[in-house]
Amino acid sequence: MKSAVSALFLTALSATAAEPVTIKLWPQGAPEQPGVKIGPEEEIQKGDGIKRVTNVTDPTITIYKPEKANGTSVIVCPGGGYSILASEHEGTKVCEYLNTLGVTSVLLKYRVPRRDPANPSREPLQDAQRAIGILRHRAAEFGLKPDRIGILGFSAGGHLTVMATLHANERTYPQDATLDVPDATPNFSIPVYPAYLVSKEDTFTLLPEIKVTEKSPPICLIHAHDDKGVTSASSSALLYLEYKKLNLPAELHIFAKGGHGFGMKDTGLPTASWHVRVGEWMKAMGWLE
Predict the structure, then answer these.
(1) Cβ proximity of 54 and 83 under 8 Å
(2) Which of 45, 143, 225, 278 has a 20 to 30 Å separation from 177 between CA atoms?
(3) Stated pTM of the model
(4) Radius of gyration of the chain from Cα atoms?
(5) 3-class SS letters over 46-76
(6) pLDDT tens digits for range 32-63
């Protein structure tokens, strides 16, 4: 029997509307470093019910509009270790839920697998920066408020969410004034069990590039206490504390159990209601008005 939370979620899906619109992020081709060779895009099936996509070379955003939009939009970044994209339970299902809140959801299909093992977020960060630029340029067309564009991601996508939040304007590609904006900082950030904020050797110290400043936007962090290693819950707690030190708006939820990668799965654990907590936070912050 499905949990009450899932039952309410399924009932609410009737609020979604309109056919999604897919937009290429790089009309002239995505910038790639010399020598990069990636095979054809493909779906990977492993018999566990998780939809996986890999070999993304033509990144896109797909816009899912709700029946009654409130002007807020959220870019959704699936996880997958920067090797694949878990495009359903950390992607389309999240978009469907956000639509029930009146939020326009934007699924980011960023480039995988990782091109540079030493800097796995380089190309995905380019994709996220370009996605925010396109949304701000075309906000009126899609009924969006350019100052209410958030980003939400899982695991590696959670790391991408943090990087897009803290390094929004550090560009590693030639900008196009018709597609990019001078300030690509999201208006709020929702990392869900983010990876790679700490090292394997020291899970109680944030990596040097995870630097919060007075200009960092509001954040809501989701994690399970029993997550381990480079996805340890300590990373979200440490990032929250950096926000607290600067007295910036932040919220942190650490569930006792849930492990890693729960996404929109109905696990029967309290982690299955993480999205409800996020919705409550967004309402409290005024983004659902």
Answers:
(1) yes
(2) 143
(3) 0.94
(4) 18
(5) CCCCCCEEECCCCCEEEEECECCCCCCEEEE
(6) 999 999 999 999 988 888 999 999 999 999 99
The rounded distance, in Å, linking the Cα atoms of 197 and 121 is: 12
Order of strands across the sheet that contains 52-54: 42-44, 52-54, 85-86
CA distance 58 to 127: 10
Omega within 30 of 0 (cis) for the link into 113 = yes
- Residue (of 169, 171, 139, 166) closest to 151 by Cα position: 166
Give residue for tokens 């960092």.
216
The two three-digit tokens of residue 65, written as one number: 């509009």
Task: Name the CA dihedral angle for 21, 26, 30, 31, rounded to a multiple of 10 degrees.
Answer: -150
Could you read off the pLDDT of 3-35 as tens digits, one per residue? 444 444 444 444 446 799 999 999 999 999 999
What is the model's pLDDT at position 47? Answer: 83
Q: How far apart are CA 98 and CA 106, in angstroms?
A: 10
Token pair of 10, please?
A: 């399924």
- CA dist 50 and 88 (Å) reads 7
User: 44-48, 152-156, 180-184: which range is least confident on average?
Assistant: 44-48
Calpha distance 196→216 (Å, rounded): 19
Tokens of 124: 């995905």
